[in-house]
Every structure is written in C-alpha cells, then in structure tokens.
Amino acid sequence: MTTKLEDKHAGNGDLVGEGQPYLGENYQENGKPVANGRGEISVKQEANGTRGMPRKSLNMYSWQEIQKHNQKADQWLVINRKVYDVTGWANKHPGGSQVLNHYAGEDATDVFRAMHLDLDIVKLYLKPLLIGELAPEEPSQERHKSSQLVEDFRELRRTLEAMNMFKVNPVFFFLHIAQILILETLAWLIVWHFGSGWPVTIFISCLLTISQVQCFLLQHDFGHISIFPNSKWSRLMQKFMMSHLKGLSTSWWNHRHFQHHVKTNIYLKDPDIDTGPLIVNGYLKPAQNGKKKIRYINYEKQHLHFYMVGLPLLMPVYANLNSMEMMYLQKSWGEFAWVISFYIHYFIMFGPFYGIFGTILLIFLVKFLESPWIAYVTQMSHVPMRISKEENRDWLSAQVLTTCNVEQSIFNDWFTGHQNFQIEHHLFPTMPCHNYHKVAPLVRSLCAKHGLQYVNKPLLKAFGDNHQGLEEICSPLVGCLL
C-alpha cells in the first residue's frame, strides 16, 4: 500500500522542500511511528535539535511495495522504518554502489549501523534521499525475520556501546604500527651490516613477510574506521599502510571487502567466494559449472589447485593484477602514485644492495611468502561455513551462519590480527579489534538463546576444515559431469 505525498518527490528521490527528517525520530514502544489516523504521518522540520514549522506529509509504504524496488536502476531500502530512494546516490556512495544494490528492497537498519561509525555525518547524506516511511501496520523488518531476535541484537549493541566497547586503545595500535616499521627497519640494518648473501636474504625476507602481513591486517582495521574516529585520518592511514607499505590499491580492497561484509558468502554478491573457474566455493557454483560442462578442470583435485596456485599466487599475482586493473579503469592516478611510492621506497632501501632486478625479485619473494598466511587468515573463517543464494536473513543470523571463530591465544590473536574473532568482527566491523574477546561471551550467549550455532575451533582444525571444505564441494560438480 502507498499513500500519496502532498508534494511528489523527484525521480532521483529528492523531496520538495528543505529540512527532511532523518534517523533518530521517536517511535512508539512497538517501533512503529505515530500516525494521524488518515494514513499519513505529519513530520516537523528539525534543525539544530529544535522543531519548527510543520513539514509536508510523507508517503507510507508496505513491504510488498518496497521489495519491488530491488534493481540497479530502482533501489529503495529501509533504515529505522524510513524509506530511502538511493538510486541516484549509489554511484557516489563511498563504500561502492554494489553495497547499496545488494540491499535494495530490504531492511538495511542493522547493516547501516554496523558499517558506519559517525552517524551524524551519514544522516546528512540520507536526508535528501528520504521518500517515506513504513505504514503503521507494517513490522519494522520483513515478516519472515524474528522481531525478537532483531531487537535482542540491537539491545546487545546498545549494551556494548554503554560498555565503551567501541572505544579505541591508542597504545595497542601504536605498538602494532611500531612492530611493522621496526621489522622493516631491522631488515634494512641487517642487510646493510651483513651484506646481501643468500642466508641474509632469506632471513630478511622472513622479517619483511611478517611486516607485510601485519601491515595488511592493520590496514584492514583502518579501512573499517575502527581506529580513528575521523574517517579522513583513517583513509589516509589505510593508504599509507596498504598502498605505500604494501603496494596495493585501497579502493580495490574496500570495493571487494565491503561487499563481503554486507553479504557474506552470498553467491553473486560476495566477491570473496567468486574465485573463477579454477576453484569453486559452495554447492551452487560447482553445479553451475557442471551444467556448463566445464570438463577441462579436474574439480576432484581442486583442493590441490588451492595449494599449488591459490596459496602461492594470491598476493604476487592475483592481488597485484586486480589492484592495477581497478586503478587503471577508474583512472585513480593519485592512488597509483601511492602504489608507485611502495616500489620507490623499496628501491631506495634495498636497491644499493641488490640492484633493480634483485630488488624486484626480493619484493616478489616476500609477496610469495606472505600469500599463504593471508590466504588462510581470510579464508578459514568462511569457506567451511554456509554459502548460499540470497536469503535476506537478519544481520545476526546472516553473519553467524557464514562465519566461524578460531580459539583465542596470544599467538592466534597476533597471527590473525585478532581476526580469529571473525564473528564479532562481522557483527561489529567498526569495533576496535582488541575488544573482540570481551564481546565474544555476550555474542555466544545471544546465539544460544536463539538457537544459532556459534562455531569456535582450534587454529589447526580451521586450516584442516578449509581443506576439507574445498575437497567436499567438488562432489556436486563431479555428479553433473558424469
């Protein structure tokens, strides 16, 4: 159902007039807005915390109507019962247009809260996109979702905010940055003092590998704005870590990673499970490849493909080529300059000892060594878990069913950059990683209350399950090819 707006909104979703309402409006105890009895909501102008002249009435929509607007050229979504037309804004969205498109026609309240740290700034962008609200008789989320589970999760978040679990410990991240820079400096001092023989080269390659992996893990935290409250500083530090110290595009990483977060393990929406024809994830892609009669790849051995190709070439080949491709296609010359600075600083540090060709070999040796480490850290929490088509689940269920944790220990925390608490990270991406272990018992308790399996396993078992998952996945495809 839809009621008419007194002044129709433009096709791009902008309302006529100024001072549109935004997130933070008051609701009745049942989460529904106060209606005037005539199918319309009277909205007041809100500015600087005070209410002034009466505003024009907004359309009210049913879920049935909203769910029709789920195409790239027609994208509506719901946040806190407010309906937004984000079609014209999608291409300007800092997190990428695909993130919005993946939630078109759905309730995006919890994912919106999870992915944004400073809501006051984001609200300013939402105001001109507002086109209406859910009708009073409509639930606050789609009817197939458990309202109790959704409310319990939101209460958990409020509890964590009250506990200051989103507050950063600056010393923790200072030590993380210091570790990276000290390891790189130490590698240079060793080769300067002992020369560039093979034993020294192998040793400094190990030091640089550790530095590079920890740099990758730290840039991930900067990308989620979980360290600096100011997003500009976070983006700048992410560029320094990812582009200057690692030689990769932050835009490429964020474009993929944000999609992975909002639609984890969802076929055609999560880029991390789209590994091309050589390795397939889940049971949908193998069956699809089987129907296409892709017989030239022996999928019964795809776990071996992972070891022979996926592990060693993820960073030196796949990541580098995809990063360069995105910068070229988007003409991101400023970011390209950041990436070039990585090679310049390596040539300055190690060129006098190895020459140009030798330094290039050193760079790719380090990328070759870091690749298995990064591959396991990023894959072991998701490959063995549920991979499916779009199911439009609530935020808690969507993340818990597709994610598993690795047991806490000093080594596991360091080895994974605290990404062993992957469930907590996916539920609260903007939370500083040093607080995950404090939050985990509360998340586990909530999962138990609602019958969700909270998977937590030893590190070596996580490695083994990753192998087993790849080995078992191939069976549907083999059946299709027989």
Automatic annotation (TrEMBL):
- Composition bias of kind Basic and acidic residues appears in 1-11
* Location(s), subcellular: Endoplasmic reticulum membrane
Going by the UniProt record, its keywords in alphabetical order are: Fatty acid biosynthesis, Fatty acid metabolism, Lipid biosynthesis, Lipid metabolism, Membrane, Transmembrane, Transmembrane helix
State if Transmembrane helix is listed as a keyword.
yes
- SUPFAM superfamilies recorded: Cytochrome b5-like heme/steroid binding domain
Tell me, what's a Pfam family for it? Cyt-b5
Domain Cytochrome b5 heme-binding span(s) in chain numbering: 58-135
CDD domains in the cross-refs: Delta6-FADS-like
Pathway(s): Lipid metabolism; polyunsaturated fatty acid biosynthesis
Specify the protein name: Cytochrome b5 heme-binding domain-containing protein
PANTHER family in alphabetical order = FATTY ACID DESATURASE 2 (PTHR19353), FATTY ACID DESATURASE 2-LIKE PROTEIN FADS2B-RELATED (PTHR19353:SF22)
- Organism of provenance: Felis catus
Its membrane topology is listed as: Multi-pass membrane protein
- Region spans: Disordered: 1-36
* Keyword hit for Membrane: yes
